[in-house]
């Protein structure tokens, strides 16, 4: 058994694991090789935001805020690498997917523990919804706050 000196070591392990998981999904989705590390960093930042917020908030609001963080990071990387946002946001959102909660809900159903399965299924559903809302909300805020760059060639002069 390993005795940790402080809480930072398990958090560092989670950061590395989420970076590898997000980058591995980047490989699976065949993103350009130069974007694998930023995809991993996007997933790592989102997961760390979730873990740190989950200590103080419920899992659903923590997931919502972490999804917002993922989308902001994805937008920054998309502008830096001049690649669509979806490349970074899909790989970055993977660590937040509530697969463990959904598994526990299904296992409870199979074991005829329906009283346990309903809250777990509702939590998985709400966490999935929080991911979707976080992705959309961040994109809407991005569109509203950042000025639109108009192409001068396509504009017609006003009389």
TrEMBL record:
One Pfam family of this chain: ThrE_2
Protein topology in the membrane: Multi-pass membrane protein
InterPro entries referenced in this protein's UniProt entry, alphabetically: ThrE_2 (IPR024528), ThrE_Dicarb/AminoAcid_Exp (IPR050539)
Primary location class: membrane
Key words of the record: Cell inner membrane, Cell membrane, Membrane, Transmembrane, Transmembrane helix
Ranges that cross the membrane: 12-29, 36-53, 59-78, 85-105, 125-146
Domain Threonine/Serine exporter ThrE residue range list: 14-141
Domain of life per record: Bacteria
Cellular compartment(s): Cell membrane
KW Transmembrane helix (keyword) present: yes
UniProt keyword Iron present: no
Family indicated by similarity: Belongs to the ThrE exporter (TC 2.A.79) family.
The name this protein goes by in its record: Threonine/serine exporter family protein
Organism: Paenibacillus terricola
């Amino acid at each position: 058994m390993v005795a940790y000196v402080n809480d930072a070591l398990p958090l560092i392990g989670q950061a590395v694991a989420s970076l590898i998981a997000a980058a591995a999904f980047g490989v699976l989705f065949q993103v350009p090789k130069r974007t694998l590390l930023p995809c991993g960093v996007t997933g790592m930042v989102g997961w760390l935001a979730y873990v740190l917020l989950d200590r103080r908030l419920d899992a659903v609001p923590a997931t919502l805020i972490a999804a917002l963080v993922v989308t902001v990071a994805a937008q920054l990387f998309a502008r830096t690498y001049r690649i669509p946002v979806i490349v970074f946001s899909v790989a970055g959102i993977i660590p937040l997917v509530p697969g463990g909660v959904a598994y526990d809900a299904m296992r409870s159903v199979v074991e005829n523990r329906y009283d346990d399965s309903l809250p777990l299924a509702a939590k998985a559903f709400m966490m999935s919804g929080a991911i979707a809302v976080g992705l959309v909300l961040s994109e809407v805020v991005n569109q509203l706050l950042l000025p639109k760059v108009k192409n001068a060639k396509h504009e017609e002069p006003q009389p």
